[in-house]
Amino acid sequence: MVQIFSTFEHSTNLELAITVLEKNGINKENIFAVPLTNRKTERRLFDSIHNADGISLVSTGSALGTAFAVIGASVGFKLAWGPIYCGLIGTSAGFILGVCIDLFYYKVIKKQRRLLRGKNSEVILLIECEEEQADTVEDILWHHYAFGTARVV
């Protein structure tokens, strides 16, 4: 006996694949589908020491802080507070503005894109069959748009 694992998007292609497998001699008892559940909680934006997701809220703030510091220091030569204080104020204002821009982008814009795309959960399909049927089963799965397959002998 061979076990074939495959992943599908939860769609009609999965149902069609199961129907075609049954028509090709695979018993219902040898087909097992496991739906995966979607994430219930929102992703955390602030990383911890043990968990990082590659999203940086500091990079835009650093860039804008540097730019505003240069502008503030340049303008500060003409103002009463001087270039150092004006540069520090520019740095703070640029950094805060950059962090706010990133927070808005990841909390509002990225969330709307994710909702519009409609992320569906996947289904893991496990099929037990004879070794002679394994190639046919894999061809059927690929024909019905499986994300991936694996064969365990």
Question: Can you put this structure into words, describing what you see?
Answer:
The chain crosses the membrane at residues 54-76, 82-106. Keywords: Membrane, Transmembrane, Transmembrane helix. This is General stress protein 17M-like domain-containing protein. It comes from Paenibacillus cineris. The protein is built from four helices and four strands, in the order βαβααβαβ. The longest helix has 36 residues, at 82-117. It has 153 residues and is α+β, with helices and mostly antiparallel strands. Helix content is 50%, strand content 17%. Helix 2 (59-76) runs antiparallel to helix 3 (82-117). The chain has helices at residues 12-23, 59-76, 82-117, 134-143; strands at 2-9, 31-35, 122-129, 148-152. The model has no long low-confidence stretch (mean pLDDT 84). The chain has a four-stranded antiparallel β-sheet, with helices on one face. The chain is rod-shaped, with a radius of gyration of 27 Å.
Summarize the structure.
The chain is α+β, with helices and mostly antiparallel strands. The protein is built from 4 helices and 4 strands. The protein is rod-shaped, with a radius of gyration of 27 Å.
- Note the gap between the termini: 7 Å
Quaternary state of the chains: single chain
Tally of contiguous helical segments: 4
The averaged pLDDT comes out at: 84
Tell me, briefly, the overall form.
rod-shaped
Radius of gyration: 27 Å
Q: Could you estimate the helical fraction of the residues in percent? A: 40-55%
Strand order of the largest sheet: 2-3-1-4
Largest sheet: 4 strands, antiparallel
Strand content bin = 15-25%
Give unreliable regions as ranges.
none
| Class derived from helix and strand content | alpha+beta
Order of helices and strands: EHEHHEHE
Q: What is the number of E strands?
A: 4
Protein name: General stress protein 17M-like domain-containing protein
Transmembrane segments: 54-76, 82-106
Keywords: Membrane, Transmembrane, Transmembrane helix
